[in-house]
């Protein structure tokens, strides 16, 4: 039974953002599930160039746009646009851990001597080791009242409006506006509270990485005591949209009752991580086939995008643009082609989990290759990768054959920028012995029919 909020003070939640498309949906979805329901959300956005604002509008936010970012001024601008007696502040890339975050955060403000309260910050699985260490040391499990300590952190904090009117945030400093504010209120004889039950996930830390190996040792001990850090796949479950795009040029290959596109769609339907399956084609017959197997075909691709000189990234960028017009914004895109029909059950779901849990921009299906690899080009033949004769089982060096058509998970912002590969790339080593087999002709399809007819779909 939901608590009676009719007499509860209104809380204005200030969310500062700039290009937080990756996180803002998760942040606002968690806020929408709070038990303390009497709140409004003020989004202070520093002219994001991605889909941050579009995604946030779905949650009924009040938008405040700013051109030049100064942290204290951004918060003050948000508060000036708000109505609440209590102000909560959360970064656009922080995610409340549970539905009691807001209630636990503002409860400490009943004490008039407490100027402000800040909550716990927990790392994610892919947070750098030094940041995990610093977060664990800084944000412990015991609540405390700070009488002399002026530490305060606006990634996750709250204060009363009357306090803000006396002590607005400094609008000139370029950073640590929260600690500057903390000094002022402590000097005025007020107190600061730390409330660990008001916790958020924060993917980066409060300090720069230092000695990585030492930090990893400390993190290993901490995780042994307190358990592993948050699994991003579980956090994102039910809160993100993952679309598979199957690009097909012309008529899909079919023979003797076997349809490569149909088998591909049937496989994708078995994937629990996918919310949408989109076939991008220039052919009406292929579109009809896709729909019969349960895929969505929201557009017919222009024939010009099927010319031999057009690369796959152009096709995918166009497809994503058209998808977003009618289907909305996606968190991840999975690219698969019908020409690679041999996938292990669960492969796509594993790749999506890898992208989430490790924070990768791109995850590519790849076949490990420990044998020597040779490139033949305009400068002749040259060897890459392994250059010794150490037995393959003992070699520490591995080349990987990228199999994008088999599976590639990518963040939409990269596709919009015209590329598939970001700075942080993960490889999913495929196990299926036929994973690298590619079928692009009817002859190849006929030769593979005996294998395809006995190949399980899921």
UniProtKB/TrEMBL annotation:
Residue span(s) of domain Glycosyltransferase 2-like: 12-163
GO biological process: single-species biofilm formation
SUPFAM superfamilies linked: Nucleotide-diphospho-sugar transferases
UniProt xrefs under PANTHER family: GLYCOSYLTRANSFERASE, O ANTIGEN BIOSYNTHESIS RHAMNOSYLTRANSFERASE RFBN
Protein known as: Glycosyltransferase
Provenance organism: Denitromonas iodatirespirans
